[in-house]
């Protein structure tokens, strides 16, 4: 089952070859270049251009010599040529292992367009009545597509509900505690961009292993938080946010939540080299709590940051129903109970609890 990747000189071709080599799958690289850098990593062969007379004969010989049974052609015209070659030759011993990226992008659009109307209806349903009627399927599909380009631990239902409720956030700061690479932050920024308000966004994350350790987990699982280079995660967050952040309206604090809150309470301005200076009001209109999931940590985040909520604010507790522990659920239930008549409504979506405070 050897796969021939032709041409191997494109990013998609190189990615396919590297993945196959990592999995231990037999793979052959070919391109029409005089030298292809992938030759340093894979078994590479030169094939003529598809426009050359000798192409079919050279391809037949390569396939026969290496027992090739599968093809991956990551360039649209080469894919079209090889599709025609298979039809012309009637070969049954060869098949494409996947389609060219162009066709995969079309298929992705078709799948997203199929799902987007139901997601749009969901976003409108969870939003405050009448505040999300302007949302169209392309808004939801577009925001989700970009968000899923960022690694993250928030998924479709929660992110769609976020888009809905963010259409009715009152004036004030939008704060997220726990961002990782910025998937939910990407939704936060893009969803706010659909409104006519200018809520400044503050993201807090320590991006630090010891801070992220969840002691309620078995030691082997808790240790997973330490076993990585968090500075790369923090840098990746910055890169992910650059295209979305509006000057003066976005910043982040690379601090543990409690230290960040002390800073926020003391000084309403946050400055970073990359995002400049952002002035905050000190009053929070939207709060997403998605940091350490130990009960004590969630309760601390809740008690510190919800002390600044404005009437009508939204609070989102991530992982209200968490498969690995009851911390977020308990902290959220206590919050709702303590709100009493200040609780306007709450709903559960995609594992998170969304809570809206009364307008007065
Ligand atoms: C579950 S991830 C966040 C997922 C993200 N919201 C998303 O959509 O992909 C939790 C993040 O919280 C951060 N974190 C954990 N404890 C923290 C603390 N005490 N203060 C600040 N950040 C913390 C971790 O560094 C990690 O990036």
TrEMBL record:
Keywords associated with the record: Methyltransferase, Transferase
One GO MF term attached to the UniProt entry: methyltransferase activity
Cross-referenced Gene3D superfamilies: Vaccinia Virus protein VP39
Coiled coil: none
Domain of life (superkingdom): Bacteria
Keyword Cytoplasm carried by entry: no
Biological processes annotated in GO: methylation
Protein name as catalogued: Methyltransferase family protein
Organism of origin: Rhodothalassium salexigens DSM 2132
